[in-house]
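Interim report to the steering committee. The following record documents the input for Exodeoxyribonuclease 7 small subunit (77 residues).
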Amino acid sequence: MSDLDEIKNLPFEEALSQLEGIVKSLEGGKSTLAQAIGEYERGTALRRHCEAKLAEAEAKVQAVVEGAGGLSLRDVE
């Protein structure tokens, strides 16, 4: 399984936690250049994944509509 496949399967909370760890590591400045580049690339992929998960959640929230019978969900594309 590639790094990107592994990231795609992470729950939002785990991806965010890993991203926070990468940010702290990069801010610490103790990595080699090669390590920092690798961390930055993984962090970018994690950020994209988190943004996609948030957009998905936002779409679900926006799908809640009020109808005659109260609140219901409409289909989300």
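The first helix runs from residue 3 to 8. The committee is asked to note this result when reviewing the revised timeline.
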